[in-house]
Amino acid sequence: MRVVERASQILKKMIKYKSTRSQEVGRSFKEALFGGLAGDGGLFIPERIPQISTDFFDHISSLSELEIAEQVLWPYVEGSLSREKLKVIVKEAFNFPVPTVPVNGDQFVLELFHGPTKAFKDIGARFMSRCLGVLGDEKKTKVLVATSGDTGSAVANGFLNVPGVEVKVLFPKRKVSPYQEFQMTSLGENIQAIEVDGSFDDCQRLVKQAFCDEELKKRVQLSSANSINIARLLPQMVYYFWMYKNLKRLPGIEEKDIVVSVPSGNLGNLTAGLIAQQMGLPIKRFIAAHNANKTFPEFMDGKPFVERPSIETLANAMDVGAPSNFERIMTLMGDDRDRLKGRLLACSFHDEEILEEIQQCFQRYNYLLDPHGAVGKLALNRGLSVNETGVFLETAHPQKFAEVIKRAIPDYREQEVSLENCRKSSISNNYEELVYHIV
Ligand SMILES: *Cc1c(COP(=O)(O)O)cnc(C)c1O
Hints:
Elements: H1 2-13, E1 17-19, H2 29-35, E2 44-46, H3 54-58, H4 65-77, H5 83-93, E3 100-104, E4 107-111, H6 121-135, E5 141-146, H7 150-159, E6 165-172, H8 178-185, E7 191-196, H9 200-211, H10 214-219, E8 221-224, H11 230-233, H12 238-247, E9 257-263, H13 268-278, E10 285-290, H14 295-300, H15 326-332, H16 337-341, E11 344-348, H17 351-365, H18 371-383, E12 388-394, H19 402-408, H20 414-417, H21 420-425, H22 432-438
Parallel strand pairs: 4-12, 5-6, 5-8, 6-7, 9-10, 9-12, 10-11
Antiparallel strand pairs: 1-2, 3-4
Bound molecules: pyridoxal-5'-phosphate.
């Protein structure tokens, strides 16, 4: 009897996932993980956002990174994973540093690029792949993913040799960097790269179509690894908490408001930050920093939300004209644009501004930005006021965009661009196996 009571208490407490498009009955974390998209084509979102106690924030300095990750994620996976399993997954997934580094004045950078493929997507991909590995059953799971570059490499790398999982990566022909293409196409094993003669949005549409194809879903067990999958999004909350822990060490930070600038494409990273904020993380406001693809900034300006074809820019991982997580953000905000405006500013920058910022930031502060981080920093330069401490996210390592760096800083020496590990990853084909495991 006792056991039954306890079980029913857990069930009541357990967070379920609903669709952004309807009040479809709640799904468990496991169901949302394997489902990818909800049956009605909407995205899964937690039915409620758990609150973190103030005690947690008061003592955050004494918690390790892994303890923070475990505590933040636990309510979202309870009922599908045991606490012990979560501990193991967190330990394996978050096995690289995510430092908060001062850049200039009141501006800091949260470096998310120290993972194996040098983009922040490693974090979500590594977490999700391990969840699939642990929760998968007999049937082989086919993971479909559309990429504008970084997702594909992170997912391919994170899922390589995960038993019971086959990965299909769809990428737009000639629209990813050679380095990114190499990272996706060179692994083999359970990773298949599929070049699509179209744009990223076309790839994304094809993937979404597959998820709505009931016939196909009867034949194969499909899952998605885009940030439309909630299991990739949730772990991204964790580094906002790590950032807070690091900032908290600064003298006088208690009197300051924290503002976070997020280089944005599909808005997954921003959605994760907004959920972290709703859990109680003291971030005053966010800035959604976009390149010339300004579907979201225009919406925030009061225009209707109109999906557009994507425009090619130097920050190509953010070349998204139809940001998929928009639905999630609006659902989180009760479809209230004004409420969103209270905690979020959105802006957009052109390629010329990106090049200039990379050059200026290096010259003045000796900090090398990648084109995506440059967009994040540009937004902070514009939007930070007194009594605010700003953090922009560096979502990729500058080495991944060496051609852009060379354009921005012509006298930049090649060796300086190719930082240690990266030089190793450009070793010739003879050492393929080795190289693949390093990058
Ligand atoms: C994917 C990506 C982004 C955009 O993140 P979203 O979550 O899609 O908004 C930004 N920068 C880099 C380097 C990326 O790979």
